[in-house]
Structure formats: C-alpha cells, structure tokens
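Listing S7. Sequence submitted for prediction.
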Amino acid sequence: MKRKNFFQRWGKYVKPYWKYFVLGPLCMIVEVLGEVILPSLYASIINTGVEGRDIGHIVLICALMVLSSVIMMLGGVGGAYFGARAAVNFAADLRRDVFAKVQKFSFANIDRFSTGSLVTRLTNDVTQVMNFVNMLLRMFLRAPGMLIGALVMVIIRDPELARVLAITIPVLLVVQVLVIRAGFPRFTRMQGKIDALNTDVQENLTNVRVVKSFVREDFEQQKFDHANGELKQAGLSAMRVMVMMMPLMMLIMNLTSVAVVWLGGNRVIAGTMLVGDLSAFITYMTQILMSLLMVSMMFMISSRSMASARRISEVLDEQIDLTDDNCAQPERRVEQGGVEFRNVSFRYYKNSEEKVLDNVNLRILPGQTVGVIGSTGSGKSTLVSMIPRLYDVDEGEVLVDGVNVKDYSLKHLRDGVGMVLQKNVLFSGTIAENLRWGDEDASDEEIRAAARSAQADEFVERFPEGYESGLDQGGTNVSGGQKQRLCIARALLKKPKILILDDSTSAVDTATEAKIRRAFTNELRDSTKIIIAQRISSVRDADQIIVLDDGRITGVGTHDELLRSNREYQEIYESQESGRESVMAEAAAPVDGREGD
C-alpha cells in the first residue's frame, strides 16, 4: 500500500474547516500588531510626555494604548476561539476515520495491534495531535510575527545595540534543535509504554472475576506496578531532556538582558540614547526572545505529537487483507447455505511451517445439520471462521452455494451467516437492544419468539424489567449459561442461511441443550447448521459428523458410522462414556454404610 504524503494525509482534515484555520492565525496577527506598537507608545510617553511635562500628550498616548489593548484582547480571544474550533473538529474527524479503519480490520490485522495500543491511538495519540494543532494555530503567525516585528523595531531604533541578538538568536536555535533531536525518540518510547499500561488495565478489568476467583490481586498489582514504573521511567527520560530547554532558554535570555541593560545604560548616561528608547528596546528584545521561547514550546509539543501522528498513520496505512476489492459478484447473497472446502490450508503465522488446517476437503449440503468434533487445538474454530471470511485461506478455496467466498461482498456474505462464538459477548444496554443485533427491526414478539427458541425467555421474564433489563459491559450480570442462550437468540433473530455454533451450549445442561437443538430443527429447517461441540451427545443426531485431528479431517459420517470406522471418534466416545459411568457409579455408591437411593 502506497503511503500518503503529508498533505494527502492531513489536508483532508483541514479542508472542511479552512475558515477556522485561516481566521485563527489572522486574529493572532492583530494581537501581535498591538504588542509591537505598545512599546513605541510607551517610549513616546517617557521621551515626550514625561521629559517635556506634556500632560495632553500623555493622555492621548494612554488612550491609544487602551484602544490597542482592547483590540489585542479581541484578537487574542478570536484566535483562541477559532484555533480551538479548528483543532477539535480536526481531532473529531481524525478519530472517526481511525475508528472506521479499525472496524474494517480483519482478525489478522487486529492481531498486529494490541487492543490497548488501538485504544491509546484513538484517544491519547489523537489528543496529542489535537493539542499540537491548537497550539500551532495560535503560534503559527504569532511567534514569527512578533519575532519579525520586534526585530525590525530594534534595528530601526538602534542598529548597533541590536548586534547583541546576532549572537543570542543562533545559540537559542542550536539549543532547540539539539533538545528536539534528543526528545523525539523518547516520546515514541513513552507512547509505547502507555500502550502496555492500557493493555494491562483493560485485561485486568475485563477479567476481574477470574482475578478474584484465583486470588491473583497481588500478582496483577505487581504487573501494573511494573508497567506503571516503566511508563514513569520513559516519561522521566523524555521530560529530563525537555526540562533542560526552559532553564537554558531563560539563562540565555537573562544574559542577553544584562548585556543590553549594561550597554544601553552606558549610552543613556553618555547622552546618546533616550531612556524611553532603552525601555522600548528592552521590551522588544524580550519579545524577540519570548517569540523564540514560543517556537521552542511548539517544538516540544511537536516532538510528542509527531510520535503520536506516526502511530496514527500506522493504523490508517495498515493494509487490510480482507476486502471487497476483487469480489466478482458484489450483489450476490447467500440463498441456500451449501458449503464446500476444497484443498484448504491455513496458517496463523504466514512464515510458519505449522499448518492449523492442512488440505481440508469437505462438502456440506444446504439444510444439513453438521457436527464438528475433535480435541482441543485441532482447528475446529478456525475451520468455521473461513466460511464468513474472518480469516482467508492460504491455499485452496471455500465455497458457499458453489461460489468462492471471496466473490461475495463481505456484508452480504456475513449477512447470510450467523455465528455464536466460543467466547460469548454481550454489550452494555438492555437485553432487547442486544438481541436486536440479530435484526435491528425485529418486533417485540419476534424477540420473545427467538428467546423462547433459545430457552432464554423464561429467565428473562423473571428479571424486574424483562427485556428492558440492563446488561453490564460484557454481560457480567448474567450467568454463563444465560449469556450463551441470549447469544443464540440473537443469532436466531438473524434468520441466517448458515448458522455456526462454536461450542455455544457448553454452559447449559443437557436437557436445555436438547430443547435448543429441537428449536433449530423447527425454526431453521432450511438453514445449514454447523455445531462445534466437545460432547458427542451434542452432535450424535447430526446428518454428518466431522472429526478433526491436528488440522486434518480424519473422518466424516453419522454417529454409528464413525463408531464403527473412526479411531479418534471411538476414543472420544469411550472417554466420555466412561466418565459418565463413573459419575453415575459415584452417585449410586453407599453413603455412611447405607445403599444409594
């Protein structure tokens, strides 16, 4: 992917608000003009009004100074207002585009960025860029305007005394360049440490129940302290360089002031310079040095914002590996639900020799109920992830209704596929709002019907507000089994042509699971149902069962056929049967010398 140049990248965020970007600096120029005029007016009061005891002149010049101050205030307020409007709108549009890009990421793209890092880039990094834009608009013309205006005035008033600045200004510029060069890589490292801290905090808060159940609060505190300590050290390293700039600048400014006062004072005593002119000269010199100080502050903020801008650009420039760019039939929709895998192989790490799926060939007819079973890590979840293109195959092809999934638009393909993932996720909001993820236009009765099919209606109705009851983030205020049933109801509302259940009934009892399977048969009679399960009882009535082992299909058939012919299936069945018999034997064993009831 070709990276955009500076103007292509950032110009689009300036263009809609160009008026603010122009008016802000222009207002600041009004303030600068007032600052350049005031010292001359002040000198006129001293040289003419005070020395000549001309009260009328003093009153006139003071009135002009008051008028200039009011105009300066209006310019300063206008510059701050328009600068803030421009910067906030710039940041809002940038944040929107970064979030929109993340929404288009495939799983593989997301794997290249940690969640904490993406959160930091959307929030902290965008804020750093916004602060820089705001300061840039306020200082962009103000600092150089003050520098040029004050420099012209000192040269006009006393060219010989102005030579002091010929030494001071180059020294200040050299200091700024050295500090910025040292600070930039440190700010880049600091943003990386913020990523790590955000990741730790997010992981801890998301899994707080696990942390508490394993009594790992101390461990998590140590982890946080380590990440927080590294961020502190990175911050101190960056600030250690930057804090040197201000004292050095002030030292140079003070030495310059001393030199000007000494040389100018001698000339006043000698009668070759007026007191008002010396006072104005010192003020202009201070303005010149202050303008350079403002430039240095801009460089300080820019060094951090440039690091943030680079990190934002990494997200915006990330090449999305799953797109609709080459789809041959963008308007086609999933109509029947037939699925076929042809010589499919896949690796999570493209340079790895180990394949998660290895030469998979499989055909699933429309309307079939198919079970997928195998040991942990055998590739079951990866296999079904290929159907809605959560990942793309490395070799071979996946077809839906005889058409390569890459030839569908992602929207139409995924509209036709309903998934209940292994990790069930609910969002903050009401139960009804969560279920309407399946169909945003679903009526209340359709929501209840889907919940009844998923065996969720009974427990939802027991909540004080029923379907309007609120769910905490992640659905933490419902049990694991309730969460699974709500996720199934959400998928049923979608009425997909292909329904994938990835071990999605593991937290419900077998009786409830049987009711859910019967509902699938009745409600989704024409849909293809693919059920990944650990329990053979969950798939034994399927039209066909697929046995996966180490990324390869080792058997396809009905329950009875696989019991006769497939060794892996036999081992799974025997281990589960022996486990069930052991549980029944323990339940029937005598207790305290008495026979079991």
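Caption to Listing S7: primary sequence and predicted structure tokens for the chain studied. The two ends are 72 Å apart (CA to CA). The mean pLDDT is 83.
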